Amino acid sequence: MTSVDILHNADAAVALLVAGQLCAIPTETVYGLAANASNARAVARVFEAKGRPSDHPLIVHVADISCVGEWIKELPEWAVVLVNAVWPGPLTVVGPRTASATDDITGGQDTVAVRVPAHPLALEVLKKLREHGVLGLVAPSANAFGQVSATTAEHVVEELGDYLNEHGDAILDGGPCAVGVESTIVLATSDQPIILRPGAITREDIERITGVQVAQGTAETPRVSGALASHYAPAAQVLLIDTQELATLPTIDQPRSAGLIALSHIPTPAGMTRLCAASSASEFAAQLYSTMRQADHQNLSVIYVVAPAGTGIEQAILDRLTRAATPAKE
Question: Of 133, 137, 162, 214, which residue is the least packed, with the fewest Cβ within 10 Å?
Answer without folding.
Answer: 133
